[in-house]
Structures are given as C-alpha cells and as structure tokens.
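Hi team,

Filling in the usual template for the complex we talked about on Friday. All components are listed, including any nucleic acid strands or ligand strings, so the model treats them as one assembly.

SUBMITTER: L.P.
PURPOSE: interface mapping
COMPONENTS: two
RESIDUES: 668
SEQUENCES:
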Amino acid sequence: MDLMEHQAKEIFLQYGIPVPKGVVIHDESSLSDTLATVGADKFGIVKAQVLTGGRGKAGGIKVVDSIEQAARAVRAIRSMKIRGLTVEKVLIEERLDIKQEYFVSITIDPETSLPTLLISTEGGMDIEEIACESPASILKYPIDLQNGMIPFEITEMAKCFGIRHTLLDNLVEIACKLYQIFCDTEATLVEINPLVETTDDRLIAADARLSIDNNALFRHPEFGQLKNESREMLLRDKGIDFIDLVDGEVGLLCVGAGMTMLTMDLVAQLGSKAKCFIDISHGVNPEGFTVALGILSSEPSVRYIIVNMFGGLTRMDEIAESILQAVETIGGRFPKPMVLRLQGTNAEAGIAIMQQAGYEVCTELEELMTRFKRMITETK
Amino acid sequence: MSILVNKHTRVAVAGITGRQGSFHTRLMLEEGTNIVAGVVPGKGGQNFDGIPIYDTMLEARLAQEAEACTIFVPAAKAAQSILDAIDAGIRVISAVTDGIPIHDMLKVKQLLAGKHVYLIGPNTPGLITPRQAKLGIMPSIAFKPGCVGVAGRSGSLSYEVCHELSKANLGQTTMVGVGGDRVQGTTITDLIPLFEADPETKGIVIVGEIGGTDEERAALIIKESCSKPVVAIIVGMSAPTGKAMGHAGAIITQGKGTFASKVQALQDAGVKVVRYPKDAAEALLSLL
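RESULT (copied from the run log):
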C-alpha cells in the first residue's frame, strides 16, 4: 500500500526526519484561514497528492508567491487528472532555498534479497535515467539483517562518494531513521527524493514516499484508517487485485499476473488495448465478482470483457458459480459483450455450470482470442 | 529421471487438514506423489486419509523419513512453517502459500544462506514431475511425462505453456514454478544447472515476465554452461511503465527487468525467445 506524500511525511516527522512546514487542504475555500494560522509568507509550493510518479512533469506541482496565486494553483491542480487520477487533496508547503538535491532510499534488492540503502548526490526528477547511464553515481549499501545499518560504514562510503564532511553526520542520521521506519512499518520502499540541502546547511525531506507491504498490514492496525481510504486495498480485501491502465477498451478478468500480462499482450497484438485488469488469484467469492463486474460495467471506456482462467489453486466450478451469482446480483446479465474461457482445476464442472446458464465457454486460449477478434470486428 | 523430486521422494504436507491442504493433498496423491506425513501443530497423532500427522516437521522426518514438503499453511504462519522445514533438514520445500509478509521472507532467506535446500516459492504453484510427484497445486491436465524441463515465474502462465507443450507431444521431465514474490527461494537461474545435469531433459523452456532480473541472470548461466536448447517466453510487453511509485525499484536494477532487457540478454545467450505459449512448443520442436 502506497502512502501519499503528506501521510509519509507525518511518519517521517514522528521519527525526527525534518520535513518542510505545510498543510493539507481539499479546496481553496479554507486557504486564507489555514495560511493565516501558520504564516502565509512561508508558503510557496502547491503539490498534488496523488499515488503516481511523474507528478511534477504533469504540472501537479506549482510554485506560488501570494495567496491569490496559491488559490489559483489549488483550483487548477484540483481540476486536473494526473495519469488518470483525480486530485482530491493538495499539500501547501514552505519553499526551501536549495543548495543541492540528494536522493536517499531503502528498498529490497531482488538479486540479494537484502534491504539496500541507495544514496545519490543527484536527486531530482531524472534519477532513474542517471541510474541507468552512470550506475557508479549511486551509492549502494546492502543492509545485513542481523546487524542492521552500521552508521560508520555509511559514513565511510558516503565520504568516499564525495559527500561533504559537514553533511555526513546529518545524512547518516537520516539514513538510519529511514531504516528504522522501513523495519517498523514493514515497508517495501521508503524514499526521499529530493532530500534538500538548504543554503543555511540543513537537510530537509522535500518529498517522501513510503510503501507498506500489503501482506503485513494485518499486524499493523495503525494503518487501518489509511487502508480504509484506499480503493486498491478495499478491493484486495475482497480478493481482487484491480489495476487501472488508464486508456484502453477491454476489461480483463484473469487468475495470476502472468496470465493477465499474456492476455494483455494478445489483446494488443489484435490492435485493441486493455483498459484495466482484475486478478482474482487471492481467493474467489461471489461478493468479489460482484464488485469486479460492477467496476467493469461502470467504466464507460470498457467496451468488451475477456474472462481468461487457467486455475490451479482456483477451482473453476467455484469460479462459475461465483460469476453466475454476481451476474444475478447486478441485474441478471453480463454488463458488456464478453468472451469466456475456463481451464484447469475442476474445469469440466465449471464449463457445465456456465453452459447450463446459457453461456458459451471455450477451453483453449487460441479459440478465446479468435472469439474476441470476431467480437471486436462485428461491433466495429 | 527428473529434477528435485520423483516417485520415490518421501513428501510431507504442512497444513494437510486445511481447506486447500486437504483438497490438494488428494490431487497430489492422484498424481502418484509418495505422501508419507502431514504436519499440523496441535494435531500430532491424528491422521488424514490414513496419512499420519505430526506436530513438527522434524518429527515427520524422524518418523517417516520425509525429505521434501509442500506448505499450505496460511500466510501469517507460513514463514514459521518454512523455518520448521529448514530446521528439520528437509531438502526440497515447496511453499505454495500466497501473501507471506516480505519482512518474514527476508528472515527466511537469511537462514537459508549457505544451506543446501531448495525452497520453491513462496506464492508458487510448486513443482511437478508428471505422473510421479506433484508438490503443489498445478492442474494435472496441463502436464504429461516427457523430455522438457520447464522453469516458470507465473503459475497460470506456466500451466498454459505446459498445456501447449503437452498438446504438441512435448511432455515434461519436471516443471518448477519459482513463484511471484519479490523475495523468493530458488530462482530460474538456480534451476538451469539442474536441468543441464538431468540426462532425460532434452530441452528447457523458461516462462518469464517483466520485472526482476532472474531471466537476465539465467541468460548468463545458459551462455556459460548450458548445452541444451532453450526457449523462453516473456510476457508483459504491452504493460505500461510508470505504475510503480518509487524510483528505487528501477534504480536498483539499473535498467534491467524490462521486456527489452530480458529479450536482449536471452537472445545473446542463444535462447530462442517467443511471444506466445503456442510458439514455445513450435520453437522447441524445431530445435530438438
């Protein structure tokens, strides 16, 4: 589960990592009041709170000099969509006098299965390209689980890396606090980009990212409220992984990420495009299917549905019964033109159930895609 | 022959009395699996369809000489079950459970270091040597005995590929699903030398997908030390980028993990890369 910038910053602050002064608002009506209570002259940046990268490039961050400008910026940002996402909240913060920008992050290196600290002296928007073009410009420190992060080792590495000695203590302390957050919250990612060095030599986390392991949320009641605000997490509780791909016309209902991606590639090969996919591999029930079909029927851009299942753990007779119950709940018919394939565990029973209810079912992938192709040609 | 498991392998099932454990134990038995014990803490002394149940994996090993296991224990306790199996000296651990907290798996990986144990998964369909031993949940209909070694990341996609192979009369020696989690035990890279060493395996199919760097590392091993023909399918070409939040994921892999990077690495190693499951069967037929 990804936290929004302002939520992550609250946690950073609890652990003593400096963040800019700021307030979160939903619209500009409360703007002057809010700014007045904190001191309006300190505020200079308006930032969209959305769970996606590329916010800055999409115009979701604006520098402002007056309350009037701030109000205009809030209105503008609230009405924009960033990678398909509506902006519900904005964060207004003091503007920092920047001397240099750094990048500090802890994530799990899939090659070593170790938490790994990354530091770069070139923080900012294009850090990914820098990492590809000059990997040597990123300090990479694998963290031993038993000993944790060893401050003097980071100091030594950072020093060799050319980080000014007056900053070292401060930087290492922030890195250690980040690791504490990483462990305590069972994060998969904690990141500051940029970590700003101000002209008066302070280090401040100008941005903050924190992703909590979904699988560990059951033992973190402190995130219960945030979880309830997240559409992604509410769906996951019903056994559904929902991924919105922003533009496209096909809704996919599959089991497993690999099969979903294959179906997506096959749809693309036929000149069409997937709009969203729903992976039901975390467990299946009629309620989950009702929600899934509800999403597909309410998305106007979804014109077709492909149901493609090859079940191992997932049993096809249970899938069939769940689909039929869900269809019953949402009004007795499938919301959009649909092709259906059931294969794998208990497939024969599943197919019999669907056929009895009047649905055409196929068992082979090739046939499914042929039917899909026919369906889009006929309706175009 | 096969890799890791065959009809003689003595298998224990952790969580044998649960909803998934009991259902799939019966299917594993149908495949021919030599299941000798169940492990459920608190149910030691009982039995499941005549299979004796023990409280710990160590007891299962001592009493029944269990040497491999399948784990169906719910996510919150699954890491403990894996640790129990490692501690008992189980050689092949197939961890089917989906949703194990990643920080639990970090600890498991630390304890695995230096031990000669194959941990398959977690979040895996498991592994199967068709008609001999199934330590997992894959649908038997997709598999038949033969000469192809299959190493895959995604469960359902591996079924699809094996289904196509089987239809083309290319049965499998063993299919291993390495699982979809970020922290995993055995990798595709680890499996290549096993298939290379197995005399019955004549060709290898890799079922890969975007993300991670396993396919790239496997390509290096194949280039160095694999004499058998290898076909790979990589899905996710049309998946959009930029959905992930942080930069660290992309930075830590330094440009690897993309569709282009995987295809390039595999082709450089002489692997025939195909786009769809059906093509995998055709490509392998032309190489054998």
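MY TAKE: Chain B has ten helices and 14 strands. The CA atoms of residues 53 and 99 of chain B lie 25 Å apart.

Thanks, L.
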